[in-house]
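In this supplementary section we document a worked example of the pipeline. Step one takes a protein sequence of length 413 as its only input; no multiple sequence alignment statistics are reported here. Step two produces a three-dimensional model, which step three serialises into structure tokens for compact storage. The input and output of this example are shown verbatim.
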Amino acid sequence: MLTTLYTLATLLFIATPSAADEWTQFRGPTGDGISTATHVPVNWTATEHVVWKQAIPGKGWSSLVLSRGKLYLTTADEVSADVTSLRAVCVDAADGHVVWNVEVFQPDASAVKEHHSKNSVASPSPIVTSDRLYVHFGHLGTAALDLNGNILWRQSKLTYKPRHGNGGSPVLVGDLLVFSCDAAEDPFVVALDVGNGEVRWKTPRNTTAAKTFSFCTPAVIELDGVTQVISPGSGFVGAYNPRDGKEVWRVGYGEGYSVVPRPVFANGLLFVATGFDRPTLLAIDPKGATGDVTEKHVTWTATKGAPLTPSMLVVKDELYTVTDNGVATCFDAQTGKVHWTKRLAGDFSASPVYADGHIYFQNEAGTTYVVKAGTEYELLATNDIEERTLASLVPADNAIYLRSESQLWRIGN
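The serialised model returned by step three reads:
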């Protein structure tokens, strides 16, 4: 009897979501990789502290989102050599069973061929709200579903020629879904009406960069009560008015292209990485910015420690980065002073995450380095699930959710 009661209590504890168990978009509710979860696991292996594993059909590197006890992701299932099914999937966070798996698009075979070997057809991350799931497949289409998997609308009229496929995720701004379409030519930023998927505005990039393709997820910031959408692209980062899409200000960075890291705004500064060929980290003061503010609003820059793919993370007064080849750096966010630099093993694509006093750096081979947040480097754990992963992990109370190449994982204490 006591064993039965203990088991029931444990299941209730696992199944009951808390406010910290909300990770509603790429990089979490506020889009900056910060979690309020507690008792987040620090140690695990491929067999230890694994609560469940669930195989997911198809391929995709979209990061997970989590809300009210459900995980959501996208995947691309190759039905045959000529047929690819782009799908949205809902998984129960308590036990890992697939709640529903719905086809959203079945694009023309020629349209899915153009993507980098490290990329996937399902790389952009979804957005979940109290009653909707928004999924995005770049030039292949965008859609809204209810939380039972019923498709509410599809938008596949936005045609453009990608380079290396799609990577950037959308951002929700009021009644708009905003994303960047930095294609091989004629790049633009666009806003869809969340009610019906129709285009509300579309703004050309007007970049002078020779290579116009990039893959960045916009950030949303508020300055003196005014909302701005921050969207880095090739050659410059632009701030856009979400009401009409007009460019408010820009900071140029020459020929920087293939920009991936999502900007982060903290302590009055906006942190942006500039992409290939020579990545630079920019700290920008956006207050009062209008027009081209390249010369006046860049507070500090750094080339060492600037990432090409992983996004940046700010915790209190420290800025954390990890380069694609595994060099982790802790900067003073206000001045750019380097507190510490450490080479971690492996290549990195996933963005670092903060939870419960710890920074989680996850490499492409499936190893996560857990480092104590602070101005002195202290490695707490090295955890290997022995399977390739490029998607960023999701922390929650007493749990971590991982997406590897073939399955989902729930890690517990």
